[in-house]
């Protein structure tokens, strides 16, 4: 047969590999070159060993370094002995024994062919070549990127002895394999030999980095395993079809569990420590020094790239054999072992060189259309890969880049066995942001995380704003092998994988990743500005993917985008989908102002991705989201597609985006569609975005959180879906007195009947988020344990509704609570049928569906077949107990190598038994009969898993058939939870609190006695000063409020608005008495802010907000204006404030407060009947410039703003305050003289307005005539 050829190149031997496909016997010897010459006996230089035995004749507890001995003759190994030792060869069966790569050197005390009992060796099949009780070990490590050749160095002098082999062994392909290895000469080192050779010593050793080699054609990799470092054992698991790696743990003690566990998510073990772990040894059955854990050999033809990357001078774990005599010394090892920095430098240089050659197209990045960055049409989501690169890819690389080339803006998690891995730029992100261990996979950078920690790391990446893609294995290695046997054509050796999920912050669905119970929205916005108008039109569609609820709307907005602002403030979307180059600058500014800075912005192409209405209809039909196309589509969606073109287009963009995330089918097929109205003029109180911000309804003004907001005060819901519904209620308080009183009746009922409150709390306080969970069931992605939680939750709801209906039917009759319970769907019978379907306890605890006997015939048959196979295994075990005359034999599972026969170490076993693992007390074996039966069992289990998967789908499909009923039951429960929340919030307000009296009327009216701010009351109830407030009815509609700085004017304005919202929400209010007619809208203008992004000054912002108020205010609106006109000069500010106040009082007739520091403005309206002049009281000490704020509302005009007193409180210098006070006196004298010399401008203006009406020039204003006459009548 052909042999390897040895050539000298640059002083080193270069070996041409033998072209042979036969298996090698030892992992280590698979790299020993074939001798150049054939002779009757060939010699391999073997270093002499001197293992010192202990007194008892046993080996030392620690492995000793090799010591050179002089004048030692070669040991000749007879051909017959070697052939007897190596006679058994591993089977091609995937369960064949992993052969050890441990090579032990002989001692001169005993010939190599003698054994401990004088008979055939216990460890056969080439598992262990034992020459002495006290021999050293050569351990084979997997190839590493930093090894160009393998140096087998000895810490002692370079003296060797030869083992002469018979000529027949020289050409044996089992002994001299096809793969090649350059052995460098050993050299003298100055390190402590004890530390060098003993992994248990205190010294540290350089170790190779943890490697996750991923090529489907390459060898398997070494991975960390769980357990004590001293008790760990490492094993390489190989797979012909894929390089997915597994890791096993085998403790030395019997009471320690064997398991395969994932490595920590982050590398926490120092590099040197991990090297020590890799070289830890197991005690064998002869009490020898610990031997390195056996490693299976690769059953497939080794890839050349695994060997060609060995570098000069690298150590092969703890192998301490010298090179052949003909090998020249390695340059790197001539003076010592290469240090870690040198190895890393060489590895990185080689890696960069390989990358430049093979991935040079990554240096010149282009998108799929070959556009480069900077081009207006560049698409950062895609990557162009030239055809020449595809031809050079290995199967795994091809599989990876086929997915990654369309996800260049996404971090892709690629599943490899028990790990998820990130490559190239994604790996760099993981390393730089999260300090994940970065390694080199031939030509690709890589980091890895355990499969079990995917949810944690995915949520971490998402929280940082990254988009995450999940690529899963769609079959197991065993499943692939079973399928391949049924195929005729040859398949590539790569496990099938596919993109299963893409995660973004706006589209999270897994309960573990969601950080809030409130809705998280992904929103698509379509804008259209017509040529004949400056007012834009918007079509909007948004979805909460955790519940599958779509909401659509279309509206025409003003030039300030007021409705868009309101919608964005109400929903706070986490992700936006916009049409590229089609959104106006004004709209972009509004969006940037309203959404979070962490929001994700997606700009997609018009028409091809942002579909128009016609394309949307075609895609819905072709994708078969609904049965019979659009005929079975939800009514809301059908109506939108027929009448609203912009909303239809926005829906199309959202569907396209969900399709990229692999979520479109799951979301659309639920059929959960609603129309959204930002204002709901006919049914709810209107609060625009400006009002929601000013009143701090959902977010506060200091950090944007919900602390101190009205929502945090009132929302005391128990269930997550109740909280989401309460958020909607607070966005749209009621306007109908009937609807408000109906809610108030339920709140009073719960407050007066503690038993009802306790019943509601009892069944709701442990309910899971059913609304989100049933959406996961619909998508078929729910865990078995979560499905049980869903059924148990609905059982609680059903039983609680029955209890409420039977026990409280009389007292709750006619209330909204009784109507909800009566209208809720009865699911008791359906739930009862589920108790007979499968074992709930096993599903909850073990996460598997086990059908009740007789429920699923296919499952029962598969289960019976597995039981029979297991019985055969135990029958075989009983046979072996009799054969070996040992009753203590049993089965032991080690990782995936299950049903190993565990035999006490003092019991002899047949020669054809292959040792798999062991401890001090016992060894574990496989044989051919056992492997065959295990193989049948594992294949049966694989089929059983497929049956269980299909059965799970059947369960979920059956449950989803009643999706609408389950959802209706959830909504009824959520409404009851909101009632419970309002009753709890009312009780927490503190005394006094009352039920508001809601009255109907054509004019607005507000009456509050001893009103307090509810949010401030919660933290400072003892010191807060209540106030009486009356607007409308028999009192003035408008209050002009003056007072010192910091006297509480803004707080009073806000508490009036908040009290109105609470009353119309159906909640009790923090007042002794309250009566009001429901308001149509609330408008506020508070604070002073500029808008740098829009190039608008503070005064411009004030006037823009005031313009919106004037346009939208009506007779039943509540208006709050705080210090209008302060953003400009005194005279201009006074003029603007006067004109706006006059317009509100004489033209609009709304209710409201107008706070100001212009005392002269009060004088202008002193004769107006519909204006009431009030002030916030304060006690002033003029002598010491001190002011005490009383926070009490009373009639009158505050004579001063007492700015000098506040300046004194702030610590301004006395000289500055004196000068300011003198200047203020001069200005006040001038102003008073001016007012005495002028006529009443307001009265003159109203008179001329009446004259124009009388002449018929403005007949449209006749409707305002009674109001105007009432205003100018004064006190007469």
From TrEMBL:
GO terms for molecular function: ATP binding; ATP hydrolysis activity; ATP-dependent DNA damage sensor activity; mismatched DNA binding. It holds the Pfam family MutS_I. Residues 40-53, 87-101, 178-188 have a biased composition (Low complexity). Residues 239-259, 269-286 have a biased composition (Acidic residues). Residues 1117-1133 form the DNA mismatch repair proteins mutS family domain. InterPro entries: DNA_mismatch_repair_MutS-lik_N, DNA_mismatch_repair_MutS/MSH, DNA_mismatch_repair_MutS_C, DNA_mismatch_repair_MutS_clamp, DNA_mismatch_repair_MutS_core, DNA_mismatch_repair_MutS_N, DNA_mismatch_repair_MutS_sf, DNA_mmatch_repair_MutS_con_dom. The keyword DNA-binding applies. Its main location: nucleus. Keywords: ATP-binding, DNA damage, DNA repair, DNA-binding, Nucleotide-binding, Nucleus. One of its GO terms (cellular component) is MutSalpha complex. Gene3D superfamilies: 1.10.1420.10, DNA repair protein MutS, domain I, MutS, connector domain, P-loop containing nucleotide triphosphate hydrolases. GO terms for biological process: mismatch repair. Residues 149-177 have a biased composition (Polar residues). Residues 1-10, 130-147 have a biased composition (Basic and acidic residues). The keyword ATP-binding applies. Component of the post-replicative DNA mismatch repair system (MMR). Belongs to the DNA mismatch repair MutS family. This is DNA mismatch repair protein. It comes from Schizosaccharomyces osmophilus.
């Amino acid at each position: 047969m052909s042999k390897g050829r040895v050539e000298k190149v640059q002083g080193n031997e270069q070996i041409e590999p033998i072209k042979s496909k036969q298996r090698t016997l030892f992992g280590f010897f698979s790299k020993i070159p074939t001798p150049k010459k054939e002779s009757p006996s060939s010699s391999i230089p073997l270093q002499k060993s001197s293992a010192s035995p202990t007194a008892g004749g046993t080996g030392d507890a620690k492995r000793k370094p090799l010591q050179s001995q002089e004048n030692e003759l070669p040991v000749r190994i007879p051909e017959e002995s070697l052939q007897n030792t190596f006679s058994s060869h591993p089977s091609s069966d995937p369960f064949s024994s992993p052969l050890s790569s441990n090579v032990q050197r002989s001692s001169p005390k005993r010939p190599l062919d003698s054994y401990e009992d004088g008979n055939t060796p216990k460890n056969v099949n080439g598992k262990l070549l034992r020459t002495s009780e006290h021999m050293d070990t050569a351990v084979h490590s997997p190839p590493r990127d930093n090894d160009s050749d393998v140096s087998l160095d000895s810490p002692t002098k370079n003296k060797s002895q030869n083992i002469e082999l018979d000529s027949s062994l020289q050409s044996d392909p089992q002994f001299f394999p096809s793969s090649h290895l350059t052995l460098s000469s050993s050299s003298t080192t100055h390190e402590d030999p004890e530390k060098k050779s003993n992994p248990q010593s205190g010294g540290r050793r350089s170790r190779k980095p943890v490697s996750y080699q991923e090529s489907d054609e390459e060898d398997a990799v070494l991975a960390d395993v769980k357990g004590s470092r001293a008790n760990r054992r490492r094993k390489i698991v190989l797979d012909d079809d894929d390089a997915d790696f597994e890791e096993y743990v085998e403790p030395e003690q019997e009471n320690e569990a064997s398991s395969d566990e994932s490595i920590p998510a982050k590398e926490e073990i120092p590099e040197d420590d991990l090297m020590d772990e890799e070289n830890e040894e197991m005690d064998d059955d002869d009490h020898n020094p610990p031997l390195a854990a056996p490693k299976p050999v690769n059953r497939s033809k080794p890839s050349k790239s695994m060997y060609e990357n060995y570098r000069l001078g690298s150590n092969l774990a703890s192998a301490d054999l010298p090179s052949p005599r003909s090998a020249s010394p390695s340059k790197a090892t001539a003076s010592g072992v290469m240090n870690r920095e040198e190895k890393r430098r060489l590895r990185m240089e080689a890696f960069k060189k390989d990358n430049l050659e093979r991935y040079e197209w990554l240096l010149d990045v282009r998108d799929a259309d070959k556009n480069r960055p900077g081009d207006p049409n560049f698409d950062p989501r895609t990557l162009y890969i030239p055809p020449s690169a595809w031809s050079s890819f290995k199967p795994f690389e091809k599989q990876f880049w086929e997915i990654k080339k369309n996800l260049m803006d996404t971090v892709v998690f690629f599943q490899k066995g028990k790990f998820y891995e990130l490559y190239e730029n994604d790996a760099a992100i993981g390393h730089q942001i999260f300090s994940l261990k970065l390694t080199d996979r031939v030509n690709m950078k890589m980091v890895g995380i355990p499969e079990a920690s995917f949810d944690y790391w995915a949520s971490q990446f998402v929280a940082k704003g990254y988009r995450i893609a999940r690529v899963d294995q769609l079959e197991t290695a065993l499943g692939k092998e079973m399928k391949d046997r049924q195929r005729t054509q040859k398949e590539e050796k790569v496990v099938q994988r596919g993109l299963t999920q893409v995660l973004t912050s706006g589209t999270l669905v897994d309960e573990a990743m969601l950080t809030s119970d409130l809705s998280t929205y992904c929103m698509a916005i379509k804008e259209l500005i017509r040529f004949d108008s400056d007012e834009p039109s918007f079509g909007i569609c948004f979805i909460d993917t955790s519940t599958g609820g779509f909401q659509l709307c279309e509206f025409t907005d003003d030039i300030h985008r007021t409705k868009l602002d309101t919608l964005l403030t109400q929903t706070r979307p986490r992700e936006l989908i916009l049409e590229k180059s089609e959104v106006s600058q004004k709209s972009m500014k509004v969006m940037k102002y309203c959404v979070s800075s962490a929001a994700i912005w997606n700009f997609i192409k018009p028409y091809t991705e942002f579909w128009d209405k016609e394309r949307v209809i075609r895609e819905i039909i072709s994708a078969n989201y609904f049965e019979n196309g659009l005929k079975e589509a939800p009514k809301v969606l059908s109506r939108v597609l027929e009448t609203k073109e912009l909303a239809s287009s926005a829906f199309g963009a959202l569907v396209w985006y969900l399709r990229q995330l692999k979520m479109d089918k799951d979301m659309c097929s639920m059929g959960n569609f609603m129309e959204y109205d930002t204002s709901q003029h006919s049914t709810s109180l209107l609060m625009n975005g400006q009002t929601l911000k000013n009143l701090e309804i959902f977010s506060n003004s200091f950090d944007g959180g919900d602390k101190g907001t009205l929502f945090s005060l009132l929302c005391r819901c128990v269930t997550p879906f109740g909280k989401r519904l309460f958020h909607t209620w607070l966005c749209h308080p009621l306007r109908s007195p009937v609807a408000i009183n109906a809610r108030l009746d339920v709140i009073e009922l719960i407050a007066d009947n503690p038993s009802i409150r306790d019943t509601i709390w009892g069944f709701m306080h442990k309910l899971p988020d059913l609304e989100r969970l049933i959406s996961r069931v619909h998508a078929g992605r729910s865990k078995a344990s979560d499905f049980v939680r869903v059924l148990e939750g609905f059982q609680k709801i059903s039983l609680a509704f029955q209890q409420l209906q039977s026990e409280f039917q009389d007292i709750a009759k006619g209330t909204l609570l009784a109507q909800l319970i009566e209208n809720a769907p009865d699911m008791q019978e359906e739930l009862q049928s589920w108790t007979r379907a499968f074992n709930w306890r096993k599903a909850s605890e073990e996460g598997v569906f086990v059908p009740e006997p007789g429920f699923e015939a296919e499952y029962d048959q598969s289960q019976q077949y597995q039981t029979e196979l297991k019985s055969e295994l135990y029958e075989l075990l009983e046979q072996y107990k009799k054969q070996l005359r040992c009753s203590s034999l049993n089965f032991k599972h080690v990782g995936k190598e299950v049903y190993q026969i565990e035999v006490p170490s003092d019991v002899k076993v047949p020669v054809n038994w292959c040792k798999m693992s062991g401890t001090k007390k016992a060894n574990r074996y496989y044989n051919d009969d056992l492997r065959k039966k295990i193989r049948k069992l594992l294949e049966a289990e694989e089929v059983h898993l497929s049956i269980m998967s299909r059965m799970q789908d059947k369960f979920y499909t059956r449950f989803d058939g009643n999706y609408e009923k389950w959802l209706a039951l959830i909504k009824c429960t959520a409404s009851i939870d909101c009632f419970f929340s309002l009753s709890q919030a009312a009780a927490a307000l503190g005394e006094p609190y009352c039920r508001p009296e809601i009255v109907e009327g054509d004019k607005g009216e507000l009456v509050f006695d001893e009103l307090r701010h509810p949010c401030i009351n919660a933290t400072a109830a003892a010191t807060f000063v209540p106030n009486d407030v009356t607007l409308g009815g028999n009192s003035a509609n408008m209050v002009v409020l003056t007072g010192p700085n910091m006297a509480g004017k803004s707080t009073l304005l806000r508490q009036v608005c908040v009290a109105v919202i609470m009353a119309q929400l159906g909640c009790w209010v923090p007042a002794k008495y309250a009566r009001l007619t429901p308001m149509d809208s609330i408008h506020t203008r508070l604070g002073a802010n500029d808008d740098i992004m829009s190039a608008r000054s503070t005064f411009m912002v004030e006037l823009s907000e005031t313009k919106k108020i004037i346009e939208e205010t009506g007779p039943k609106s509540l208006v709050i204006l705080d210090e209008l006109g302060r953003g400009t000069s005194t005279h201009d500010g006074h003029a603007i404030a006067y004109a706006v106040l006059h317009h509100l009082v004489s033209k609009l007739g709304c209710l409201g407060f107008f706070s100001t520091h212009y005392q002269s403005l009060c004088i202008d309206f002193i004769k107006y009947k519909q204006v009431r002049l009030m002030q916030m009281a304060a006690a002033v000490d003029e002598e010491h410039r001190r002011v005490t704020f009383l926070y009490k509302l009373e009639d009158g005009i505050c004579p001063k703003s007492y700015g000098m007193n506040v300046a004194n409180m702030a610590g301004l210098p006395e000289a500055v305050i004196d000068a300011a006070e003198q200047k203020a006196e001069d200005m006040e004298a001038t102003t008073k003289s001016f007012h005495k010399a002028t006529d009443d401008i307001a009265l003159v203006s109203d008179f001329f307005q009446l004259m124009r009406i009388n002449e018929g020039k403005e007949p449209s204003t006749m409707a305002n005539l009674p109001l105007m006459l009432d205003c100018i009548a004064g006190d007469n």
